[in-house]
Amino acid sequence: MSSSNVPIFTLSNGVRMPSVGLGTWQMTGDQGKTVIRNAILSGYRHIDTATLYQNEDQIGDTLAELFAEGVAKREDLFITTKAFCHEVAPDVIEEALRSSLKRLRLDYVDLYLAHIPAATKECGNHRTNVKVEDIWRGLEKLYDMKLTKAIGVSNFNENQIERIMKIHKVPIQASQLELHLYLPQKAHRELCKKHNIIITAYATLGSPGRMSVVGADGNPLFESTKNAASELNDKNVKALALKYNKTPAQILLRATVEMGIVVIPKTTNPDRMKENINIFDFNISKAEVNLLEAHEKSKPERLFWWPNVADHPEDPFAVERSK
C-alpha cells in the first residue's frame, strides 16, 4: 500500500495530516520497534503516541534507523504525541515536550496534544487550580517556539473547547477523542466543523486491548465496559463487508474517514496493519455511511471513562458520569 493513496487532511494552519495513522498504545519494548518498522514499510506516514504509552524511546530509535537507511524522511512523516495529566499545566508542559522530543530523537513533532483536560501532580493528586484556558496558553507557547507544528486537545468536551475558542491566540487545530459507531460524538463533530478543527478518532474498532489494562486494585481498569457490544458484529457493517469483500474493520475505518475524521487503528499483526490502511480501493457511498450511523443503539456506549480524573473540576465526563 503506497502512502500516496491515503487521503491527506489539512489543519487550519495548513499542516497536512494523513487520514490514517498507527495508534501505538500498549506497544512497548522490542515489539514496539518491530511494529513501527513494519508500519512505515507498509505505507504508514502518521504515528500516534503519548508519554502515557511509554514507547517514545522505541519509536525514536526505530525512526532514526529508518532515516539512516533512507527508508523514510522526517519531512514525510506526521508524528503526534501527548502530554499526560501531570504534564499539561503551563509550568511543566515545556519540559514535558522537550523530554518527549529527546526520547523521539526529533527536533519537533507535527502535533502536540493535551491528553486530557484535568491537570494533576506527578503523584496523581489533582491540581484543581489549573483550568483548560491555562493548559491552552501553555500549548500556545510551545507552538510559538516551533517545538510543534500544530497543537490540539484530546478527551476535551464541547464546553471546554468553546471556552478555549473564546480566549485563544492560536486556535485549536485538532481534537482527538473516543469515537466509534456506537459513540458517534455528533455534537463534538458539529462543534469541530464550526471551528475548523480536525477530529482524530480512537477506539474506532472497539479497542479490545483495553481489557488487559489492570488498575491499582488488581482488577481490569475497564471492567465496567467488558460487555459492550462490538461494532465489528453490527449487521449493517457485516453486510457492507460482504458486499465489498472487505473486513468489518475496513468498513468501519473507511466510513469514518469518509466523515472527514482521521483514524489511528492499533494492531501489532502485520497483515491486519496492511488491511487497516488498504481501505481506499473501493467506494462507500454517503447513503451507506448514513445507514451505518442509523444503528439500533439508542444510548451511546463509552468504553474509556478515565477514572483518574473523576471529581476533578475539569473532568470532561462529569455530566455523563452523573447520568
Automatic annotation (TrEMBL):
InterPro entries: AKR (IPR020471), Aldo/ket_reductase_CS (IPR018170), NAD(P)_OxRdtase_dom_sf (IPR036812), NADP_OxRdtase_dom (IPR023210). The active site is at Y53 (proton donor). It comes from the Eukaryota. Pfam families: Aldo_ket_red. The record marks K82 as: Lowers pKa of active site Tyr. PANTHER family: ALDO/KETO REDUCTASE. This is NADP-dependent oxidoreductase domain-containing protein. Residues 20-296 form the NADP-dependent oxidoreductase domain. It comes from Caenorhabditis briggsae. One of its GO terms (molecular function) is oxidoreductase activity. Substrate binds at H115.
